Amino acid sequence: MCQRHSIKLGRPVCQHVRGGELDEAVGRLLVETVTPVTLGVALAVQEELENRSDERDRLHRQEFERARYEADLAWRRYMQVDPANRLVADSLESEWNQALRALTEAQDHYEKQREADRAGLNDKQRASIMTLARDFPRLWNDPRTPDCERKRMARLLIADVTLLKGADICVQVRFNGGATHTLHVPLSKPAWILRQTPRAVIAEMDRLLNEYTESETTEQLNRQGRASGWGKRFISNQIEPACSAAKLRFFSGTTSGPAMREMP
Length: 264
Hints:
About 60% of the residues lie in helices and about 10% in strands.
């Protein structure tokens, strides 16, 4: 939430998104994604790529050999030029230097690629990955797992998450490796809506007030196990505010007779 314009200029904040529902949605996505099946497919693809390393090595070596040939050719042209012709000599020397730089870059690329190809997964590493896939849902959903550990697991799997707030919250998740997934999370309801007395309780309250006083209605609601919008037992002074919120006209009446209220 950016509050700079709100603080300095009195403008509305640019965006405000509650994190609880987003955390749960992304957590469910991770649990669904990190499974033995998906990791098994990823390992199969990795194995196929490793099997093609010989072909890649041949192609990269050809590029390296081509760069070395160009450097040798530039060197021979430079050595054959008449030293007295300084303009041509300088031009050929520049071409030779460029060819040497290209050769150095090609050699570095070739060696790094060979090192990466040799760094394939061994059987022990593959077994550890599959064990992680089976343990991940248990670790993620375990209430004893600290949130800091969940954050570490999320960072290993997710590159970034982009939020777009409109009619709902569009959650664009980009995994490490390039895969993407889009979620749509409903906007959070304001606290005053979440704390409203349930409609079923209001209807029962309306029925009881036809026969009982305010305090007697409170007793009946509690006896039935009804709860307020805060999830707690009713007390007598909550009846009138609940009626007002439900747009029921409420009159306390006398202590000996039932409460009187009118529908608007």
